[in-house]
Amino acid sequence: MTDFRLLIFELRGVLDRILLDAVSSREELEQLLLRVLRTTLEWLDREVQIPVHSAALLGLESGERFVLASSGMTDRAREVSRTIVERTLRSGRTLIARDQGGDFRRGTRHGAARPGPYSFISSPILGQAGPIGVLLFGAHSGGSAGAAVRPVAEQLCAALAPYLEIIQTHQRSLWCAGTVRDGPLHYGLAGCSRLLQRVLEQIALYGHLNIPVLLLGEPGTGKELVARALHRERGIGRFLPVEVTSIPPSMLEGELFGHKKGAFTGANRDRDGLLVSAGDGTILLDEIGDLPLDLQAKLLRAIQEKSVRPVGSNDRVEISARLILATNRNLGADVLSGRFRADLFERIRTLVIELPPLRKHLEDLPLLVEELLRQAAERLELPTPRAITEAGIDALATHDWPGNTRELRGFLERISTHSRHRVIRVQELREELREWRAGRPSDRGLSPRPSRGRNLVEDLREFERELICDALREADGVQTIAARTLGVPESTLRRKMSHLGLHRSVAIHQS
Question: CB of 216 within 8 A of CB of 352?
Fold first, then answer.
Protein backbone atom coordinates (compact mmCIF):
# COMPACT_ATOMS: atom_id res chain seq x y z
CA MET A 1 0.00 0.00 0.00
CA THR A 2 1.18 3.51 -0.73
CA ASP A 3 2.70 5.32 2.26
CA PHE A 4 -0.21 6.66 4.31
CA ARG A 5 1.89 9.68 5.37
CA LEU A 6 1.26 11.16 1.92
CA LEU A 7 -2.43 11.42 2.76
CA ILE A 8 -1.72 13.04 6.13
CA PHE A 9 0.56 15.51 4.35
CA GLU A 10 -2.29 16.38 1.96
CA LEU A 11 -4.66 16.85 4.88
CA ARG A 12 -2.24 18.82 7.09
CA GLY A 13 -3.28 22.24 5.80
CA VAL A 14 -6.97 21.46 6.26
CA LEU A 15 -6.44 20.03 9.73
CA ASP A 16 -4.37 23.00 10.82
CA ARG A 17 -7.16 25.33 9.65
CA ILE A 18 -9.56 23.35 11.85
CA LEU A 19 -7.38 24.13 14.85
CA LEU A 20 -7.41 27.86 14.15
CA ASP A 21 -10.89 28.40 12.71
CA ALA A 22 -13.09 25.71 14.24
CA VAL A 23 -15.27 28.07 16.25
CA SER A 24 -15.63 30.78 13.63
CA SER A 25 -18.87 29.16 12.44
CA ARG A 26 -20.53 25.77 12.44
CA GLU A 27 -20.88 25.89 8.66
CA GLU A 28 -17.18 26.52 8.10
CA LEU A 29 -16.25 23.66 10.43
CA GLU A 30 -18.52 21.28 8.52
CA GLN A 31 -16.96 22.36 5.21
CA LEU A 32 -13.44 21.75 6.53
CA LEU A 33 -14.30 18.28 7.85
CA LEU A 34 -16.07 17.49 4.59
CA ARG A 35 -12.84 18.33 2.76
CA VAL A 36 -11.03 15.84 5.01
CA LEU A 37 -13.47 13.09 4.04
CA ARG A 38 -13.48 13.89 0.32
CA THR A 39 -9.68 14.15 0.18
CA THR A 40 -9.46 10.73 1.88
CA LEU A 41 -11.92 9.14 -0.55
CA GLU A 42 -10.06 10.61 -3.54
CA TRP A 43 -6.76 9.39 -2.14
CA LEU A 44 -8.10 5.83 -1.64
CA ASP A 45 -9.40 5.80 -5.20
CA ARG A 46 -6.20 7.23 -6.69
CA GLU A 47 -3.45 5.61 -4.64
CA VAL A 48 -4.97 2.36 -3.37
CA GLN A 49 -7.65 1.81 -6.01
CA ILE A 50 -10.30 0.67 -3.54
CA PRO A 51 -13.95 1.39 -4.43
CA VAL A 52 -14.84 3.26 -1.23
CA HIS A 53 -17.71 5.54 -2.17
CA SER A 54 -18.92 7.09 1.07
CA ALA A 55 -17.69 8.27 4.43
CA ALA A 56 -19.11 9.89 7.55
CA LEU A 57 -17.51 11.48 10.59
CA LEU A 58 -19.59 11.20 13.74
CA GLY A 59 -18.94 13.06 16.98
CA LEU A 60 -19.87 11.89 20.47
CA GLU A 61 -21.03 14.38 23.10
CA SER A 62 -22.58 13.37 26.44
CA GLY A 63 -23.32 9.92 25.06
CA GLU A 64 -25.15 11.27 22.01
CA ARG A 65 -23.92 10.73 18.45
CA PHE A 66 -24.17 13.49 15.86
CA VAL A 67 -22.94 13.78 12.27
CA LEU A 68 -20.07 16.22 11.86
CA ALA A 69 -19.63 15.62 8.14
CA SER A 70 -20.77 13.14 5.51
CA SER A 71 -19.76 12.52 1.92
CA GLY A 72 -21.73 10.24 -0.37
CA MET A 73 -23.49 8.37 2.45
CA THR A 74 -27.28 8.30 2.40
CA ASP A 75 -29.53 8.53 5.43
CA ARG A 76 -30.47 4.89 4.90
CA ALA A 77 -26.83 3.83 4.98
CA ARG A 78 -26.28 5.68 8.25
CA GLU A 79 -29.42 4.08 9.67
CA VAL A 80 -28.29 0.57 8.69
CA SER A 81 -24.78 1.22 10.07
CA ARG A 82 -26.08 2.32 13.49
CA THR A 83 -25.49 -1.10 15.06
CA ILE A 84 -21.85 -1.33 13.99
CA VAL A 85 -21.22 2.24 15.15
CA GLU A 86 -22.62 1.47 18.60
CA ARG A 87 -20.54 -1.71 18.80
CA THR A 88 -17.47 0.26 17.78
CA LEU A 89 -18.02 2.79 20.56
CA ARG A 90 -18.49 0.01 23.14
CA SER A 91 -15.47 -2.03 22.06
CA GLY A 92 -13.13 0.83 21.19
CA ARG A 93 -11.80 -1.02 18.14
CA THR A 94 -12.32 -1.12 14.38
CA LEU A 95 -15.14 -3.35 13.15
CA ILE A 96 -16.14 -4.49 9.65
CA ALA A 97 -19.69 -5.52 8.78
CA ARG A 98 -21.22 -6.68 5.51
CA ASP A 99 -24.79 -6.19 4.39
CA GLN A 100 -26.28 -8.21 1.57
CA GLY A 101 -29.05 -5.70 0.92
CA GLY A 102 -29.40 -3.03 -1.68
CA ASP A 103 -27.59 0.17 -2.43
CA PHE A 104 -26.37 2.49 0.33
CA ARG A 105 -24.67 5.17 -1.73
CA ARG A 106 -25.46 7.85 -4.24
CA GLY A 107 -24.22 7.69 -7.80
CA THR A 108 -20.55 8.71 -8.15
CA ARG A 109 -18.02 9.26 -10.88
CA HIS A 110 -17.68 5.46 -11.07
CA GLY A 111 -21.20 5.24 -12.46
CA ALA A 112 -24.74 4.83 -11.25
CA ALA A 113 -25.43 3.33 -7.86
CA ARG A 114 -25.73 -0.43 -7.95
CA PRO A 115 -27.15 -2.93 -5.46
CA GLY A 116 -25.11 -5.74 -3.99
CA PRO A 117 -22.99 -6.70 -0.99
CA TYR A 118 -21.85 -3.64 0.94
CA SER A 119 -19.16 -3.32 3.61
CA PHE A 120 -19.08 -0.84 6.49
CA ILE A 121 -15.72 -0.10 8.09
CA SER A 122 -16.25 1.59 11.45
CA SER A 123 -13.21 2.89 13.35
CA PRO A 124 -13.25 4.66 16.74
CA ILE A 125 -11.66 8.06 17.31
CA LEU A 126 -10.14 7.81 20.77
CA GLY A 127 -9.62 10.83 23.01
CA GLN A 128 -7.86 11.00 26.34
CA ALA A 129 -10.86 9.67 28.26
CA GLY A 130 -12.28 7.25 25.69
CA PRO A 131 -14.12 7.33 22.34
CA ILE A 132 -15.06 10.80 21.11
CA GLY A 133 -16.27 9.85 17.65
CA VAL A 134 -16.41 7.33 14.83
CA LEU A 135 -15.11 7.37 11.26
CA LEU A 136 -17.38 5.31 9.01
CA PHE A 137 -16.56 4.17 5.47
CA GLY A 138 -18.89 2.44 3.05
CA ALA A 139 -17.72 0.33 0.10
CA HIS A 140 -19.09 -2.20 -2.34
CA SER A 141 -17.56 -5.37 -1.07
CA GLY A 142 -15.43 -7.50 -3.26
CA GLY A 143 -14.19 -9.47 -0.31
CA SER A 144 -11.07 -7.42 0.38
CA ALA A 145 -12.30 -3.84 0.63
CA GLY A 146 -12.83 -3.92 4.39
CA ALA A 147 -9.42 -5.40 5.18
CA ALA A 148 -7.68 -2.95 2.84
CA VAL A 149 -9.44 0.12 4.21
CA ARG A 150 -9.03 -0.85 7.86
CA PRO A 151 -5.39 0.33 8.37
CA VAL A 152 -6.14 3.58 6.55
CA ALA A 153 -9.20 4.20 8.74
CA GLU A 154 -7.28 3.48 11.96
CA GLN A 155 -4.37 5.74 11.07
CA LEU A 156 -6.68 8.53 9.96
CA CYS A 157 -8.59 8.25 13.25
CA ALA A 158 -5.32 8.55 15.17
CA ALA A 159 -4.49 11.70 13.19
CA LEU A 160 -7.98 13.17 13.64
CA ALA A 161 -8.30 12.43 17.38
CA PRO A 162 -6.52 15.50 18.81
CA TYR A 163 -8.27 17.79 16.32
CA LEU A 164 -11.73 16.42 17.08
CA GLU A 165 -11.08 16.59 20.83
CA ILE A 166 -10.03 20.22 20.49
CA ILE A 167 -13.12 21.02 18.41
CA GLN A 168 -15.50 19.53 20.96
CA THR A 169 -13.72 21.02 23.97
CA HIS A 170 -13.29 24.35 22.22
CA GLN A 171 -17.01 24.67 21.60
CA ARG A 172 -17.64 24.37 25.35
CA SER A 173 -14.99 26.84 26.50
CA LEU A 174 -15.51 30.45 27.52
CA TRP A 175 -13.01 31.39 24.87
CA CYS A 176 -15.81 31.05 22.33
CA ALA A 177 -17.46 34.10 23.91
CA GLY A 178 -14.38 36.17 23.20
CA THR A 179 -12.97 36.42 26.72
CA VAL A 180 -9.42 36.25 25.38
CA ARG A 181 -9.81 39.66 23.78
CA ASP A 182 -11.19 41.51 26.82
CA GLY A 183 -8.03 43.50 27.50
CA PRO A 184 -4.45 44.22 26.42
CA LEU A 185 -2.66 42.03 29.00
CA HIS A 186 -3.19 38.26 29.14
CA TYR A 187 -0.95 35.63 30.72
CA GLY A 188 1.70 38.36 31.07
CA LEU A 189 1.68 38.93 27.30
CA ALA A 190 1.02 42.58 26.47
CA GLY A 191 -0.41 43.68 23.15
CA CYS A 192 -3.42 43.60 20.84
CA SER A 193 -1.85 42.78 17.47
CA ARG A 194 -3.30 40.08 15.25
CA LEU A 195 -0.19 37.91 15.69
CA LEU A 196 -0.33 38.10 19.47
CA GLN A 197 -4.08 37.46 19.51
CA ARG A 198 -3.49 34.26 17.58
CA VAL A 199 -1.01 33.10 20.24
CA LEU A 200 -3.50 33.96 23.00
CA GLU A 201 -6.24 32.05 21.24
CA GLN A 202 -4.04 28.98 20.91
CA ILE A 203 -3.13 29.15 24.62
CA ALA A 204 -6.82 29.18 25.54
CA LEU A 205 -7.52 26.40 23.04
CA TYR A 206 -4.69 24.02 23.96
CA GLY A 207 -4.21 24.91 27.62
CA HIS A 208 -6.28 22.23 29.35
CA LEU A 209 -5.40 19.35 26.99
CA ASN A 210 -2.89 16.69 28.05
CA ILE A 211 -1.34 16.61 24.59
CA PRO A 212 2.27 17.65 23.81
CA VAL A 213 2.59 21.25 22.60
CA LEU A 214 5.52 22.46 20.49
CA LEU A 215 6.59 26.10 20.90
CA LEU A 216 8.61 27.59 18.05
CA GLY A 217 10.26 30.99 18.11
CA GLU A 218 13.47 32.96 18.11
CA PRO A 219 15.37 33.44 21.39
CA GLY A 220 13.67 35.96 23.64
CA THR A 221 10.16 35.69 22.15
CA GLY A 222 8.66 34.39 25.40
CA LYS A 223 8.45 30.63 24.97
CA GLU A 224 8.68 29.93 28.71
CA LEU A 225 6.05 32.60 29.39
CA VAL A 226 3.68 30.88 26.97
CA ALA A 227 4.48 27.49 28.52
CA ARG A 228 3.57 28.86 31.97
CA ALA A 229 0.35 30.25 30.52
CA LEU A 230 -0.55 26.83 29.12
CA HIS A 231 0.15 25.33 32.54
CA ARG A 232 -2.09 27.87 34.29
CA GLU A 233 -4.91 27.10 31.85
CA ARG A 234 -4.75 23.42 32.82
CA GLY A 235 -4.35 24.24 36.52
CA ILE A 236 -2.97 20.87 37.61
CA GLY A 237 0.26 20.18 39.50
CA ARG A 238 3.46 22.18 39.27
CA PHE A 239 5.37 23.73 36.40
CA LEU A 240 8.85 22.29 35.84
CA PRO A 241 11.06 24.07 33.27
CA VAL A 242 14.09 22.14 32.01
CA GLU A 243 16.70 23.56 29.65
CA VAL A 244 18.16 20.57 27.84
CA THR A 245 21.44 22.29 26.97
CA SER A 246 22.11 23.21 30.62
CA ILE A 247 22.49 19.54 31.64
CA PRO A 248 25.84 17.84 30.86
CA PRO A 249 25.34 15.24 28.07
CA SER A 250 26.65 12.42 30.29
CA MET A 251 23.94 13.16 32.89
CA LEU A 252 21.06 14.02 30.59
CA GLU A 253 19.51 10.54 30.28
CA GLY A 254 19.50 9.96 34.04
CA GLU A 255 18.13 13.44 34.72
CA LEU A 256 15.24 13.06 32.29
CA PHE A 257 14.32 9.41 32.69
CA GLY A 258 15.71 8.54 36.15
CA HIS A 259 18.18 5.84 37.19
CA LYS A 260 18.54 2.89 39.53
CA LYS A 261 21.12 2.61 42.27
CA GLY A 262 24.44 1.40 40.85
CA ALA A 263 23.46 2.13 37.23
CA PHE A 264 26.65 4.15 36.83
CA THR A 265 29.43 5.61 38.91
CA GLY A 266 27.98 7.99 41.45
CA ALA A 267 24.44 6.53 41.32
CA ASN A 268 24.22 5.89 45.08
CA ARG A 269 20.43 5.63 45.18
CA ASP A 270 17.37 5.25 43.02
CA ARG A 271 16.25 8.54 41.53
CA ASP A 272 13.13 9.53 39.63
CA GLY A 273 13.74 11.43 36.42
CA LEU A 274 12.29 14.84 35.74
CA LEU A 275 9.50 13.38 33.59
CA VAL A 276 8.31 11.38 36.61
CA SER A 277 9.03 14.14 39.16
CA ALA A 278 6.71 16.52 37.32
CA GLY A 279 3.79 14.40 38.55
CA ASP A 280 0.45 15.52 37.12
CA GLY A 281 1.83 18.97 36.28
CA THR A 282 3.58 20.38 33.24
CA ILE A 283 7.19 19.90 32.18
CA LEU A 284 8.82 22.24 29.67
CA LEU A 285 11.74 20.77 27.71
CA ASP A 286 13.45 23.85 26.29
CA GLU A 287 15.92 23.61 23.40
CA ILE A 288 14.48 20.21 22.45
CA GLY A 289 16.21 20.50 19.07
CA ASP A 290 19.54 19.92 20.83
CA LEU A 291 18.49 16.62 22.42
CA PRO A 292 20.84 13.79 21.28
CA LEU A 293 19.35 11.35 18.78
CA ASP A 294 19.46 8.35 21.12
CA LEU A 295 17.48 10.24 23.75
CA GLN A 296 15.05 11.45 21.09
CA ALA A 297 14.10 7.80 20.59
CA LYS A 298 13.52 7.35 24.35
CA LEU A 299 11.46 10.54 24.48
CA LEU A 300 9.29 9.38 21.57
CA ARG A 301 8.55 6.12 23.36
CA ALA A 302 7.82 8.00 26.59
CA ILE A 303 5.26 10.16 24.76
CA GLN A 304 3.64 7.22 23.01
CA GLU A 305 3.49 4.86 26.00
CA LYS A 306 3.16 7.43 28.80
CA SER A 307 5.99 5.71 30.61
CA VAL A 308 9.79 5.78 30.93
CA ARG A 309 12.48 3.18 31.67
CA PRO A 310 15.06 4.49 34.17
CA VAL A 311 18.73 3.85 33.43
CA GLY A 312 19.71 0.43 34.82
CA SER A 313 16.12 -0.79 35.17
CA ASN A 314 14.13 -3.41 33.25
CA ASP A 315 10.79 -1.96 34.32
CA ARG A 316 8.92 1.04 33.01
CA VAL A 317 7.48 3.76 35.22
CA GLU A 318 4.25 5.55 34.28
CA ILE A 319 4.27 9.31 33.72
CA SER A 320 1.27 11.63 33.76
CA ALA A 321 2.80 15.07 33.20
CA ARG A 322 1.78 17.20 30.24
CA LEU A 323 4.77 17.80 27.96
CA ILE A 324 5.64 21.14 26.35
CA LEU A 325 8.63 21.31 24.04
CA ALA A 326 10.34 24.47 22.83
CA THR A 327 13.07 25.31 20.36
CA ASN A 328 14.44 28.16 18.26
CA ARG A 329 15.72 25.71 15.64
CA ASN A 330 14.11 24.82 12.32
CA LEU A 331 13.12 21.25 13.15
CA GLY A 332 11.92 20.56 9.61
CA ALA A 333 15.40 21.34 8.28
CA ASP A 334 16.95 19.30 11.11
CA VAL A 335 14.83 16.31 10.08
CA LEU A 336 16.12 16.56 6.51
CA SER A 337 19.72 16.80 7.73
CA GLY A 338 19.32 13.84 10.08
CA ARG A 339 19.81 15.93 13.21
CA PHE A 340 16.26 15.36 14.46
CA ARG A 341 14.15 12.21 14.23
CA ALA A 342 11.30 12.39 11.73
CA ASP A 343 9.02 10.15 13.81
CA LEU A 344 9.44 12.33 16.91
CA PHE A 345 8.84 15.47 14.85
CA GLU A 346 5.59 14.05 13.46
CA ARG A 347 4.50 13.06 16.97
CA ILE A 348 5.05 16.48 18.57
CA ARG A 349 3.86 18.76 15.75
CA THR A 350 0.14 18.18 16.25
CA LEU A 351 -0.22 21.27 18.44
CA VAL A 352 2.21 24.02 17.46
CA ILE A 353 2.39 27.62 18.67
CA GLU A 354 4.68 29.90 16.67
CA LEU A 355 5.79 32.97 18.60
CA PRO A 356 6.40 35.96 16.32
CA PRO A 357 9.61 38.00 16.64
CA LEU A 358 9.13 41.47 18.08
CA ARG A 359 10.03 43.16 14.78
CA LYS A 360 6.87 41.63 13.23
CA HIS A 361 4.42 43.10 15.76
CA LEU A 362 5.87 46.49 16.62
CA GLU A 363 2.32 47.81 16.97
CA ASP A 364 2.40 46.12 20.41
CA LEU A 365 5.37 48.25 21.54
CA PRO A 366 3.35 50.89 23.53
CA LEU A 367 1.59 48.28 25.69
CA LEU A 368 4.65 46.05 25.93
CA VAL A 369 6.94 48.92 26.94
CA GLU A 370 4.45 50.08 29.58
CA GLU A 371 4.30 46.59 31.09
CA LEU A 372 8.07 46.06 31.01
CA LEU A 373 8.70 49.46 32.61
CA ARG A 374 6.27 48.50 35.38
CA GLN A 375 8.15 45.24 35.94
CA ALA A 376 11.49 47.09 35.88
CA ALA A 377 10.26 49.49 38.57
CA GLU A 378 9.33 46.55 40.79
CA ARG A 379 12.71 44.86 40.35
CA LEU A 380 14.67 48.11 40.80
CA GLU A 381 12.41 49.23 43.70
CA LEU A 382 11.64 52.56 42.03
CA PRO A 383 8.87 54.64 43.63
CA THR A 384 7.06 54.97 40.29
CA PRO A 385 7.63 53.33 36.89
CA ARG A 386 9.39 55.31 34.20
CA ALA A 387 7.36 56.38 31.17
CA ILE A 388 8.24 56.84 27.50
CA THR A 389 6.55 59.31 25.17
CA GLU A 390 5.10 58.47 21.77
CA ALA A 391 8.22 59.93 20.16
CA GLY A 392 10.27 57.62 22.36
CA ILE A 393 8.23 54.61 21.20
CA ASP A 394 8.92 55.65 17.61
CA ALA A 395 12.63 55.72 18.43
CA LEU A 396 12.46 52.21 19.92
CA ALA A 397 10.73 51.00 16.75
CA THR A 398 13.81 51.92 14.69
CA HIS A 399 15.74 49.08 16.35
CA ASP A 400 15.15 45.55 15.03
CA TRP A 401 15.49 43.91 18.49
CA PRO A 402 17.25 40.67 17.49
CA GLY A 403 16.94 39.48 21.09
CA ASN A 404 13.20 40.22 20.97
CA THR A 405 11.29 40.89 24.21
CA ARG A 406 14.17 39.69 26.37
CA GLU A 407 16.46 42.30 24.81
CA LEU A 408 13.83 45.03 25.13
CA ARG A 409 13.38 44.16 28.82
CA GLY A 410 17.12 44.47 29.43
CA PHE A 411 17.31 47.80 27.62
CA LEU A 412 14.36 49.26 29.54
CA GLU A 413 15.81 48.11 32.86
CA ARG A 414 19.07 49.86 32.04
CA ILE A 415 17.51 53.13 30.96
CA SER A 416 15.21 53.02 34.02
CA THR A 417 18.35 52.83 36.14
CA HIS A 418 20.22 55.59 34.30
CA SER A 419 17.45 58.12 33.81
CA ARG A 420 16.70 60.72 36.48
CA HIS A 421 13.39 61.67 34.89
CA ARG A 422 10.09 59.92 35.37
CA VAL A 423 9.27 60.58 31.71
CA ILE A 424 12.39 59.52 29.86
CA ARG A 425 13.50 62.19 27.41
CA VAL A 426 13.69 61.24 23.76
CA GLN A 427 17.27 62.46 23.38
CA GLU A 428 18.31 60.43 26.38
CA LEU A 429 16.60 57.35 24.98
CA ARG A 430 18.19 57.78 21.56
CA GLU A 431 21.64 58.15 23.05
CA GLU A 432 21.16 54.99 25.10
CA LEU A 433 19.84 53.19 22.01
CA ARG A 434 22.88 54.20 19.93
CA GLU A 435 25.21 52.89 22.60
CA TRP A 436 23.11 49.75 22.96
CA ARG A 437 23.40 49.07 19.24
CA ALA A 438 27.14 49.66 19.34
CA GLY A 439 27.47 47.28 22.25
CA ARG A 440 29.18 49.83 24.50
CA PRO A 441 27.34 50.33 27.80
CA SER A 442 27.31 53.86 29.18
CA ASP A 443 28.05 54.06 32.88
CA ARG A 444 26.86 57.58 33.35
CA GLY A 445 28.46 59.35 36.28
CA LEU A 446 31.08 56.61 36.57
CA SER A 447 33.25 57.16 33.51
CA PRO A 448 33.62 59.77 30.76
CA ARG A 449 31.73 59.26 27.49
CA PRO A 450 33.79 57.90 24.61
CA SER A 451 35.11 60.53 22.25
CA ARG A 452 33.40 60.82 18.88
CA GLY A 453 36.68 61.78 17.23
CA ARG A 454 35.82 65.50 16.98
CA ASN A 455 36.60 68.53 19.14
CA LEU A 456 34.47 69.69 22.07
CA VAL A 457 32.84 72.58 20.15
CA GLU A 458 31.56 70.23 17.42
CA ASP A 459 30.22 67.75 20.01
CA LEU A 460 28.37 70.49 21.91
CA ARG A 461 26.94 71.91 18.68
CA GLU A 462 25.57 68.50 17.65
CA PHE A 463 24.20 67.88 21.14
CA GLU A 464 22.33 71.22 21.09
CA ARG A 465 20.96 70.49 17.62
CA GLU A 466 19.57 67.10 18.72
CA LEU A 467 18.00 68.54 21.88
CA ILE A 468 16.25 71.30 19.96
CA CYS A 469 15.04 68.94 17.20
CA ASP A 470 13.58 66.52 19.78
CA ALA A 471 11.87 69.32 21.71
CA LEU A 472 10.31 70.79 18.56
CA ARG A 473 9.08 67.42 17.40
CA GLU A 474 7.43 66.67 20.75
CA ALA A 475 5.85 70.16 20.63
CA ASP A 476 4.62 69.68 17.04
CA GLY A 477 6.76 72.63 16.03
CA VAL A 478 5.31 75.08 18.58
CA GLN A 479 8.39 77.05 19.71
CA THR A 480 6.77 78.35 22.92
CA ILE A 481 6.15 74.77 24.15
CA ALA A 482 9.57 73.59 22.96
CA ALA A 483 11.30 76.42 24.83
CA ARG A 484 9.37 75.53 27.99
CA THR A 485 10.45 71.90 27.63
CA LEU A 486 14.09 72.95 27.26
CA GLY A 487 13.84 75.39 30.16
CA VAL A 488 14.95 78.48 28.17
CA PRO A 489 13.20 81.67 26.99
CA GLU A 490 11.63 81.46 23.56
CA SER A 491 13.99 84.20 22.33
CA THR A 492 16.98 82.03 23.33
CA LEU A 493 15.54 79.10 21.44
CA ARG A 494 15.04 81.21 18.28
CA ARG A 495 18.59 82.57 18.56
CA LYS A 496 20.01 79.03 18.96
CA MET A 497 18.03 77.80 15.97
CA SER A 498 19.32 80.67 13.85
CA HIS A 499 22.91 80.01 15.02
CA LEU A 500 22.59 76.31 14.16
CA GLY A 501 20.89 77.02 10.82
CA LEU A 502 17.67 75.28 11.89
CA HIS A 503 14.25 76.15 10.52
CA ARG A 504 11.28 74.77 12.46
CA SER A 505 10.15 72.37 9.71
CA VAL A 506 13.73 71.24 9.02
CA ALA A 507 14.27 70.59 12.73
CA ILE A 508 11.12 68.46 12.99
CA HIS A 509 12.12 66.48 9.90
CA GLN A 510 15.67 65.88 11.19
CA SER A 511 14.45 64.58 14.52
Answer: yes
